[in-house]
Fold these 4 entries.
Entry 1:
Amino acid sequence: MSDHDFVSGGKPIGIERGEGPYLYTADETAYIDAGASFACTPLGHSHPAVVDAVCEQVENLIFIDSSYPVQSREDAYASFVASTPDGLDQAWFCNSGTEANEAALKFARSATGESKIVAATRSFHGRTMGALAATWKDKYKKPYEPLAGDVEFVPYGDSEELAAAVDDETAAVILEPIQGEGGINVPPAGYLETAREVTDDAGAALVFDEVQTGMGRTGSMWACQNAGVTPDILTTAKGLGNGLPVGAVAVRDWIADGAASHNATFSGGPVVTAAVHATISTLVEEEWPAHAAEMGEYLTAELEAALGDEVREVRGEGLLIGIELKRGANRAARDLAMNHQILALPAGRTVLRLLPPLVIDEADADQLVGALAEVVVSES
Ligand code: PMP
């Protein structure tokens, strides 16, 4: 593919279809999706189980208010709740990750009667007034201030600072089990456990934002299961409907019991919940989280062997991988797209992020590693 087929930033124009982990232009040039779908298609593009479920639902009933029981919603509710750790027994659907976090913060406040939110440096939780208030980057926030206040930030991964910040006035601690936008930051062992202990002691709600880490990507259905820590509220979106716009919040009973009125017209509509049920059922029945763990281990080991000292670090869990480069990640992403037909995402200035669909195989991984080795070496 030649240069004139690209718009600035190295993004191929004219992607017309997707299948599995590949995206195709009109002339059938194939790209490996290592981030173009931003963790939203864990089963790969246009997976037949999702396509069939959605098409059937569209033909039968596109919309009815969520106060009416609809089979697809009931099925999705059951499969979502069953997929979450024991103790998270009630759920609410919404339309995005931001909206899920917004609801989580509201639910935590109404269930505890407190207002303070503790969030982490380098966090990303969304861009509405509440979710943005718990998001770290000033660039996203300053022009919109004042936001929904009373948020205290603590350094991500530091158990002592977290323990010191949580007190009787804390409504919630909100954390990504592994930070995504902040650069694929894996916290030290014991950090999530500390978060559990200090919120328990203070009577605060522990919120895990699994918008990017969830749906099998880290090798378990939910990343918090790798650490064996169950929050009071788990939020998710992105891959939940394998590409359809849907989010969800799973909560413990005490959070549901204490939640005040909260709803949205489109929450849990028939079509998106048909996608949710098909996605979760397929992920679980076909054991894709275990495949993600295996492929993640393979890919990480191969990347470390191939990139060696040319990069600062390869880190992550499963198929949520960050490569800390010695140079700018934007340029590397552009080079990968233009010269190697691989679409990856930066996460911050120097971290190149790999977030492929979970269905990649060893040949795809080998292609990624070979291309990255060339890109990294040619840059250094
Ligand atoms: N939380 C996390 C951890 C995210 O990565 C994102 C999106 N990058 C969001 C929340 C916001 O999700 P959405 O864009 O669906 O509103």
Entry 2:
Amino acid sequence: CFCQLSGKIDECTCNIDTVDHFNNVKIYPRLSSLLVKDYFRFYKVNLKRPCPFWSDDSKCAMRYCRVESCGEDDIPPGIKGDNRMAKRSLEINASEKYTREVNEDCEAHHNEMLDYLNMTISEEAQKELVKWDAYDDALDNFCDIDENDQDAEYVDLLLNPERYTGYAGPSAHKIWQSIYLENCFRPKRSFSFNPYIQSGKLNELCLEERVFYRVISGLHASINTHLCANYLLSNANGMSFTDPKGKWGPNLSEFQRRFSPESTNGEGPNWLRNLYFVYLVELRALAKAGPYLEDEEYFTGNDASDWDTRMAIKDLLKVIKQFPDHFDESTMFRNVEQAERLKFEFKQHFRNITRIMDCVGCEKCRLWGKLQTQGLGTALKILFSGKFDKVIQNRRLDAHNKKEFQLQRMEIVSLVNAFGRLSTSIYKLDDFRQMLR
Ligand code: FAD
């Protein structure tokens, strides 16, 4: 069977079989129960941003392209309100209260201490600091984030599963082509206007360039695996595409068309191998950010549910830590002369890809495209910004480390959901293998 892959995953020391077993038995079931929790199911996104590269020509007319919006009341209060701001103001209040008490009780004896506690910076200076903090953080980002965008809205991901929508043809091809042609590194010697690199030519690229290509190709393979696994079974059930009660399920011949060597000029299995590669990249990012993620509060305003979420995350991270062969990002950007330039280009290229998502003509594909590229961007930030490189000995981070490990809620939500998508793809691949058998 062409999708019965084996051997080592490219650029890694780990075997495909190891990932299959680890994912299907340990990771996939845990993620399935984690991602239905409130903290992870509401994603804030602006789906109305105009395409910055060309005029937005195509709108998908199919009903299944539409994103169902969720009512204001459905969104947990702790998510709607800016919980970090709320928490920060609680911290400030507590510190003011403390200052007052100290003032009252031991005014005479602790002047020195009071001076320190009362030390405040002017409002203007504070605003300036916030601006510079945001600027510093933005430099590390591999994507533009919608979290503070006025036009961003919450979407309930459970109401809008990623599946076949019928989005195809010139619009979809234009997106993939610009991703591969304009934003991926290309073999210089064999430059051609065919946007899709043949796997045999990849050895003409350096490691960082190959890694970039493989993560994009892996993401592409994952999206296409999903639409095959969740296909609108119109023919089998005699339903039309406009039937509101459309039935969804695996479509084996569509999967074969997209990935068998015969119909893809031998490339299909390589694309599937890239799916395993991007899985390992995100897995490593989760492991690396583990101490920070364990320390998050996953605040939604519902104590019982937040506790469940924290326990589920802890359990997931524990299992991830046990994985024997993590992707080793320290092998990248080592060449002193080129490292900075390559890292800069890597980041710029990836940012462009996240902006291309605003050109996707099908609303639901845009939603999942944005979420998955943001999740991947967050993984790259964790791996390559240097801010997560320190080994943390104590589980609870002090205030200083916490600042350095700053991730916005949307980054965490997108990272875990994006990893959930890759995990599901690998799981579904196994279903297709069984069917082919
Ligand atoms: P495409 O998938 O459009 O691929 C174009 C060309 O890319 C292929 O001919 C091949 O040469 C090359 N290629 C294919 N796969 C790979 C790979 N893994 N690595 C490298 N090269 C490759 N459709 C849905 O039904 N549901 C969705 O949720 C959805 N989400 C999408 C999200 C985004 C961001 C985009 C751009 C598209 C999405 N689509 C979705 C559309 C879907 O991905 C395909 O574009 C569409 O089904 C048409 O498929 P195709 O067979 O013409 O080849």
Entry 3:
Amino acid sequence: MFVIRALKNLPCEMVNLVFTMNAKGTAVHNDISRQLYSQDQIAERVAELGAAITADYASLVARGDQIVMVGVLRGAAMFMSDLARAVQLPVEMDYMCVSSYGDGATSSGTVRIQKDLGCQIEGRHVIIVEDVVDTGLTLNYLRKNLLSREPASIQIAALVRKQHEGQAPLEVRYLGFEAPDEFIVGYGLDYAERYRNLPYIGILKPEIYT
Ligand code: PRP
């Protein structure tokens, strides 16, 4: 009770800082070399993507078609929740959790489904929602996998596409940002499961991961 009362009296920025303390007790913001996309920039871009989806699917929904947004856990959790609220149409929200095999640093493109959809997508319009496209292999696999279930259509919404050499060709209909090939974290993106709760996307200091 005392903690809640004390937090209420702190400015917003300070409350954010208190809630993002890492295990060593230092603020995680200190591990970021610079912000790439601020909280406001992300909110603005997500609103634009939501408006674009609303415009694109309005006539389909009007004739009775259904939309299923498929969030890819765990990185897309924040983006999914904000994007879905920016779409002014009825949508069903479901989730998949996948992991890709690789050598630890790079993805091999072999993806294992850890949690599958709970709903059927046959005859429905699917929008896959991802946080980041790096090699593109995860989304390529997922797209093919979901296509085999015979949806009416599939499109991809990704918050960030990294400029990654040799990236698998992939049409991302709803793209938030084209990012440099840096180690980025925040707004769902992690390093060793940390930093997902940063409200912005920032570049991680190299000394944190080297
Ligand atoms: C990240 C991200 C994508 C994938 C993109 O997931 O969320 O799913 O990597 O990489 P790719 O384009 O090279 O295939 P990760 O395996 O880190 O899991 P997470 O979503 O739990 O962070």
Entry 4:
Amino acid sequence: MDDLYRDYILEHYRHPHNFGIIEAPDARYEGANPLCGDRITMMLGIRDGVVAEVAFTGRGCAISQASASLLTDEIKGKSVDEVAKLTAADVLDLLGIEISPARLKCALLSLDTVSHALEERGNLAAGASADAGAGTAMDAATTAGA
Ligand code: FES
């Protein structure tokens, strides 16, 4: 792995952007990588169809947490439609390093979680569920890993 890129990833891992809680998010989902148990909770504040606020909590490997940090920067200010169209390739571009097949789930956990959050929001809007997800604060600590 290129040192420059690795530093960039480690910087996002150690000092993640948008790490924290939104008290009353419009969309929220807790995603997990079943292979390792690492978790990310994404919270979105949506105004007029735009992601006005975004925050995440979680813990896991450097790739999963850096990817969440980069992705939250990327989606802030974008329309919900634009965010819904983001692909795995977009997230890998943000990471900017080669991701081995074994680490793909780490890299894509954040995107998967955002997608689920938006889906759940759709369900909520349709009245399918009354549970808007009372914000349970995830363990804010990150673990050393990867
Ligand atoms: Fe668990 Fe990467 S998400 S090892």
